[in-house]
Design brief:
- By secondary structure, this protein is of the alpha+beta class.
- The chain has one domain: Nuclear Transport Factor 2, Chain: A, CATH 3.10.450.50.
- Helices cover 38% and strands 30% of the residues.
- It is built from seven helices and seven strands.
- It has a seven-stranded mixed β-sheet, sandwiched between helices.
- A hairpin with a 6-residue loop joins strand 5 and strand 6.
- Helix 2 packs across helix 3.
- The protein is globular.
Length: 183
């Protein structure tokens, strides 16, 4: 079990625009899939794999923060099965969402609920074909202006470098148990 900590987030300027590799991969998504598949073949404890994992976590957060779903979806399988944390879902939304459309729907609801919604990656634990990530969502309520700070632990299942399944947890111990681990 290898842990990568988001030691440095992209600078504010770089987080507001696509990086060179993001522009390349958006234009040539098949190239991203080849790189992602090669990354997944690296041994889970390797330094290169940890560096790539940290980079992917940082860039995914930056993509969400600038509302760039095209970049975010590079790492998300089109058939993703997504289980958002029940606390985040409106009563009329399904507990399981499928595909890019369902995934984006949840993100848009979160973003629209806050004036200044931000995602901050805190930690990523490489479990081979699974990834456990701790993140923090912050912002101020759209109507109320009330500050919100939501810690979240996400369990991802990967196939060929793409996220095919995701479940969100508000409790770290519960997420570790779902991943087959203990605190």
């Amino acid at each position: 079990m290898e842990c990568a900590t988001a030691s440095h987030l992209p600078g504010e300027r770089s987080a507001q625009r696509r990086s060179l590799d993001e522009r390349f991969f958006v234009r040539f998504p098949a190239a991203y899939r080849l790189v992602a598949d090669a990354w997944m073949r690296l041994p889970p404890g390797s330094r290169l794999r940890r560096l790539i994992l940290t980079r992917i976590s940082e860039r995914a957060a930056a993509a969400v923060n600038r509302r760039d779903f095209e970049v975010l979806f590079l790492a998300i399988d089109p058939g993703i099965e997504y289980y958002p944390n029940g606390d985040q879902l409106p009563l009329d939304m399904d507990a399981v969402l499928h595909g890019h459309d369902g995934y984006e729907k949840v993100w848009r609801l979160m973003i629209d609920s806050f004036e200044d919604f931000r995602v901050e990656p805190l930690e990523a634990i490489d479990l081979g074909d699974q990834l456990l990530a701790a993140t923090r969502y912050t912002g101020h309520g759209s109507g109320s202006g009330v500050p919100v700070d939501i810690p979240l632990v996400q369990l991802f299942r990967m196939r060929r470098g793409l996220v095919v399944w995701q479940r969100d947890f508000s409790d770290r111990a519960e997420a570790l148990e779902a991943a087959g681990l203990r605190e």
